[in-house]
Amino acid sequence: IAMRRMFEGLAAELRNPGFASQTLIQSMLMGLAVELVRHLGPQDLSGGMSRCGRQVRHIVDYVMDNLSGPLGVADIARGCNMSVRHVARVFKDGTGVSLGEFVATSRIALAKELLRGDTARIKEVSWRCGFSSTSAFSAAFRAATGQTPREYRCLPIQLH
Fold it and tell me: Does 1.10.10.60 match the CATH number of domain 2-154?
């Protein structure tokens, strides 16, 4: 179900790209990769994976599991038992995206998914995506998508 939603979100973004679309698409693809590894199990894919690749996967898993909490580089490094400098360098080298960009796009992708669910209030979506306030969430969402969370929620779903 999670992968299906991610594919739907990816297809919608590809059909109607918004602000920072390329970064959002990269984040969605990384999320799909994480879900695929979780589904298949690490023994199926990690045989040839380098140490750097395993560390990137560990960082991505940590971020995706902790989107509602504080996710500064220092928080992620502490959660992954790595130094701040090492976690930032390994992630950037392994993905081509900064850790901050990945966290921001992952939070917006989660917000889009939650807003499509149409059951959670915007304040709750804001909290579940790790924003300190609804206004901070609305500003970040608008900067990333060009729409307010309410406007995005009211758009018709493009895939069924």
Answer: yes
